[in-house]
């Protein structure tokens, strides 16, 4: 006769959002609704920027890529994301970027959510880009060039339609198979798509230029002559020391907007400039304390690297979203001895 093991108490369980549940959640809500709501959470957290503990992310670099930890906290919650960036992965059948993250209670240190964050990172990066463009891009923008048609591409497009009204996409990638993949997905979503043979062709007539390429080196995806007056540049792919996408001359002609200067000066496009080159912090623009777009001929640049508060907002959003739903599994993750000091005694529960 086998004896029944006692089940852990409710304290042991942490809600876990798997990749499967994240996909179901996106399909259930609709990507554009989710991206819009997520952008609202990110904006709300940017508007209370001084309340957060902030530090540049902790990066472990290797010849193949980078693995990073991205922590932040407010008075109520602590959050961190584990994320990698390995540009050669895609050719070996792996994702360039994978991630997972945790949101915890500051009051007792217990995790309140564990989530996949590969899909969620693509969503939060896109939601942040489009939110920022709402402050910086020309108001009447409908056409966006997208250079780099990999994993992030379609998420960016969906967010820019939902939040900024982009309807026409001009796609370019050095690998035509990537452009074919993105065009197929985006035409199915109702976009007007133009496949372009070069970056120069892609930027023709675009009011917004998104660069989301992956290469572990200084690259020149945009040269100075490709950027006309009045354009907004959403530069996603330059996010590591030695990994940039724009020619430095473009930076000198642009008004540059960043998430957290202490991190962007290490990782962003502005690593190519003097360490005191003027930049504007986006949280100040969102609070009305700094100017966004001032005039139609201005070139605005979002030098995006991805900051921990965006992941915190994403975890906070998902935590609120999945509560009272079936889009998570309870994970037996925390020890729950009957007497908090008798951790050793708890081991007897598992004696067969
Ligand atoms: N800023 C952020 O918050 C943030 C968040 C996520 C990812 N990223 C970065 O965004 C980039 C794209 O990520 P992904 O997951 O889409 O990668 P991916 O590997 O899936 O796609 C990258 C695409 O860029 C193309 N490419 C490479 N060099 C190019 C060039 N010179 N011209 C045109 N296309 C080129 C590749 O062929 C590939 O299709 C990566 O560098 C990643 O680190 C940034």
TrEMBL record:
InterPro entries reported for this sequence: NAD(P)-bd_dom_sf, ODC_Mu_crystall, ODC_N
Protein's UniProt keywords contain Nucleus: no
A Pfam cross-reference name: OCD_Mu_crystall
Keywords recorded for this protein, A-Z: Plasmid
PANTHER family: KETIMINE REDUCTASE MU-CRYSTALLIN (PTHR13812)
Name under which the protein is recorded: Ornithine cyclodeaminase
Organism annotation: Pacificitalea manganoxidans
């Amino acid at each position: 006769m086998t004896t029944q093991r006692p089940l852990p108490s409710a304290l042991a369980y942490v809600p876990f959002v798997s990749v499967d549940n994240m996909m179901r959640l996106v399909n259930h809500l609709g990507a554009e609704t989710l991206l819009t709501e997520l952008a609202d959470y990110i904006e709300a957290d940017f508007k209370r920027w001084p309340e957060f503990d902030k530090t540049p992310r902790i990066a472990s670099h290797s010849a193949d890529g980078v693995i990073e930890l991205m922590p932040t906290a407010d008075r109520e919650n602590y959050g961190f994301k584990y994320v990698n960036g390995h540009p050669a992965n895609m050719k070996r059948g792996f994702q360039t970027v994978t991630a997972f993250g945790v949101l915890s209670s500051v009051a007792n240190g217990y995790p309140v959510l564990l989530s996949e964050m590969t899909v969620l990172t693509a969503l939060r990066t896109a939601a942040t880009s489009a939110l920022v463009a709402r402050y910086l891009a020309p108001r009447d923008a409908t056409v966006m060039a997208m250079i780099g048609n990999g994993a992030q591409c379609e998420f960016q497009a969906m967010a820019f339609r939902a939040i900024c009204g982009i309807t026409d996409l001009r796609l370019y990638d050095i690998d035509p198979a990537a452009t074919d993949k993105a065009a197929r997905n985006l035409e199915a979503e109702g976009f007007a798509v133009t496949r372009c043979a070069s970056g120069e062709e892609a930027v023709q007539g675009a009011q917004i230029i998104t660069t989301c390429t992956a290469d572990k080196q200084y690259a020149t995806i945009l040269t100075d002559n490709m950027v006309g007056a009045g354009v907004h540049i959403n530069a996603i792919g330059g996010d590591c020391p030695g990994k940039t996408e724009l020619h430095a001359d473009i930076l000198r002609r642009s008004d540059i907007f960043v998430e957290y200067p202490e991190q962007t000066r290490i990782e962003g496009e502005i690593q190519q400039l003097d360490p005191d080159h003027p930049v504007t912090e986006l949280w100040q623009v969102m609070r009305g304390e700094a100017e966004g777009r001032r005039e139609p001929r201005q070139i605005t640049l979002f030098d995006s690297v991805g900051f921990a508060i965006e992941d915190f907002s994403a975890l906070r959003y998902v935590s609120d979203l999945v509560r009272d739903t079936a889009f998570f599994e309870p994970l037996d993750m925390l020890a729950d001895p009957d007497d908090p000091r008798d951790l050793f005694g708890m081991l007897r529960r598992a004696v067969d």
